[in-house]
Design goal:
Elements lengths: L12 H9 L5 H18 L4 H17 L3 H4 L7 H26 L13 H23 L3 H12 L4 H8 L3 H22 L9
Helix pairs in contact: 1-2, 2-3, 2-5, 3-6, 6-9, 7-9, 8-9
Length: 202
């Protein structure tokens, strides 16, 4: 009889990262629980507190979209927290550089008219958006690797159905069915994690 897998708290960083890279169920969530605090403090040390939450979410979104390239490049045997701090430092620099480029493209520090009726409404909407993005990352982490690949190819790589079908060796019809089911499972995970954002319709 096969022994049960060790709890994530008992795994070394090498074992945990290897589980993430092979798409083991729950591995990314375990990685997030263990290292997100260190990553967040690294971000706070290099940016304004107001941006820290956004950068944290953007960092984990980049990890997911890149198929954990940063973890693939980690040299086993070296300290993972030290390595992550270097990765985060570079990411924060790139994040601010990209933001400055966007601001320059639209006219520098030009003030925009508020779209909400009050500043309080704008703040609430921004808070809800951050919460929903956080839920989205958690929902993504528990999807099957095949579902993540389907959604990533469509939404982030912007591939058409024929290109994705060739990559996955599927017919276009089978791909449409698989894509629809993957998106439905992703939305179901989001709804389960944050039902308050999806009230039942009367």
């Amino acid at each position: 009889m096969a022994s049960a897998p060790a709890p994530s708290a008992d795994l070394s960083d090498i074992q945990l990262v290897d589980n993430v890279l092979r798409g083991a169920p729950g591995a990314f969530e375990a990685f997030y629980r263990r290292h997100s605090r260190v990553i967040y403090h690294c971000i706070r040390a290099r940016t304004d507190g107001q941006d820290a939450d956004d950068i944290l979410q953007a960092f984990f979104e980049r990890l997911l979209k890149s198929n954990f390239r940063a973890l693939q490049l980690w040299q086993r045997g070296s300290s993972l927290p030290v390595y992550l701090s270097k990765v985060v430092r570079n990411f924060v620099t790139d994040f601010h550089r990209a933001r400055r480029s966007r601001e320059e493209a639209v006219g520098g520090d030009m003030e925009l008219e508020p779209l909400a009726e009050s500043q309080g409404e704008m703040t609430t909407a921004a808070t809800h958006l951050k919460e929903l993005r956080h839920v989205g990352v958690r929902a993504w982490a528990v999807l099957e690797p095949r579902d993540r690949r389907l959604i990533c190819d469509r939404l982030h790589r912007d591939l058409d159905n024929e290109a994705i079908a060739i990559r996955l060796q599927l017919s276009v019809g089978a791909l449409r069915t698989a894509m629809s089911r993957a998106q439905a499972r992703y939305l179901a995970q989001v709804r389960q994690l944050a039902p308050e954002f999806f009230p039942d319709r009367a």
